[in-house]
C-alpha cells in the first residue's frame, strides 16, 4: 500500500523509509571490494568490468579506481583505526558493512572528499546494502574516524617498535615488513625500508612494451606514451586506455611491467657459445615474457617454445604471442616439473617461477592480505624443482634465467643456493653484467643478494621487485 506521495506504508499506516540513493562511483568501488572478498578476485582485473557495467568513464572512473585500490592497499591501517572506533571485534561486523566502513575511512583519511560527503555517502551505501540499523552504526563509527587525520591516527595506535610502526603506517602485514627488511639488508639497503613500503602504496603507471619487429617505440610515442629511459622497449602511459592504442589492440605491443621486460632482455642478450636456435619459457602464462622473447628470437632466426601447465593460461599465452609467430615454435600445455621434451633440448630457458608476488604489491595490493609465511614454505620446493628441471632442459653451455616477482630471500637466493649446492655441473653467470650490457638499458644499484644476481625495486627503479639469476651447465 502507498501513501499519496507514492511511498510504501508499513503495517499500521506509517510510511516506510525512502530507499537510499547510492552514489554510482561509490557503489562501483563497493562492488570491486565485494568481488575481491567473495570471489578472491584481483582488483586490477575486476575493475575494468565493473566500470563498463556501471558506464563510468573519465573522472568518475578515476575516482572509483583510487577509492577501490587505495582502500585495499591500506586495509591493514584502516582496520587498526576502525578497531579503535568500534565497540566490538571487527570479526563481528557484517562483512558488507566492514567493506563500506573501509571505503568511508579511505575517503576521510586519504582523499580530497569533504568529511560530510564521505560520511553521508557511506551511510547511504550501507543503508542500501544492509539496512537502517547498520547505517546508524556506520554514521557513528565514521564520525569517530573523522576526529583525527591519518598521521594522527598512526601515532595514536601504532606500536613503538620499528617493524610494528612501519606495518601500521604503511599498511603491510608485520611478517611482510620483516621479509622486505631482510631482503633490503642483504643488498646493503636496510635504511630504505620505509621508502620501499611507501612505493608499494603508490599507484603504478601503465607501462607498455614495444615488441621488436612488430611495433616501434616511435609508434607508441605518437600515441602519447613516453619512453622510460631504462629499457629500450619500455614506455609509460600517464592517462587513457592502453587498449585504445592500435599497436596494443592488435597485439603488436602490450602492457608489461618494465621489470619483466628487463629480465627477458638479460636472458636474450647474454653471450652464448655454440648453437642458439631453441628457447624455452617453462612457466609462460599469461604470456608477456613469451611475447617479448618470441619477438627477439624471431629477429635472430631462433624459435621459442612457450609451455604452461594450465590450459586456460596457455590460452592467454596464445593470445599474447599471436603476432610473434616468426619466433614462436609453439605453445604447449605441459608441467615444467615433468618436462615433455628431451633433456638438453634448448639453448636458452626462462623459469618465471610461481611465487608469493610480494614484489608486485603496487599492482596486486590484495596479495599482502592473502599471503602468509606458509605460502612461501610451500612455494620454495616447487621453485627449486622447476629450476632443477630447467637446468636439465638446457644443453651444456646454454643458459637458464631463474626469475621471481618477489624479493623474499627464501624464494630468490635461497632457491639458487640450494640448487648450486646439489649440482656440481652448474654455476652462476654474472646477471648484473649481462643486464647492464643490453643496448639501451640504463640502470643503477641492481645488485642482488648473491654476487652476480639482480634485484630490481619499485622505489629504486619504478619496476616490480623482480629477481634474476642466470645459470649455466658445464
Automatic annotation (TrEMBL):
Entry's Gene3D superfamilies?
Answer: NusB-like, Vaccinia Virus protein VP39
Q: Keywords on this record?
A: Methyltransferase, RNA-binding, S-adenosyl-L-methionine, Transferase
Q: Where is this region: Disordered?
A: 1-21
The active site is formed by: 405
Q: What is its EC number?
A: 2.1.1.176
Binding of S-adenosyl-L-methionine: at which residues? 283-289, 308, 335, 352
EC category name: transferase
UniProt xrefs under CDD domains: AdoMet_MTases
The protein's superkingdom reads: Bacteria
List, alphabetically, the PROSITE patterns matched: SAM_MT_RSMB_NOP (PS51686)
Where do transmembrane segments lie in this chain?
none
Checking InterPro entries in the record gives: MeTrfase_RsmB-F_NOP2_cat, MeTrfase_RsmB-F_NOP2_dom, NusB-like_sf, NusB_RsmB_TIM44, RCMT, SAM-dependent_MTases_sf
Q: Name one GO biological process term.
A: RNA methylation
Start and end residues of each SAM-dependent MTase RsmB/NOP-type domain: 179-474
GO molecular-function annotation terms? RNA binding; RNA methyltransferase activity
Bias-annotated ranges (Basic residues): 1-12
Entry's family note:
Belongs to the class I-like SAM-binding methyltransferase superfamily. RsmB/NOP family.
Known function: May act as RNA methyltransferase.
Protein's name according to its UniProt entry: 16S rRNA (Cytosine967-C5)-methyltransferase
Originating organism: Nocardioides daedukensis
Query: What phylogenetic lineage does the species belong to?
Result: Bacteria, Bacillati, Actinomycetota, Actinomycetes, Propionibacteriales
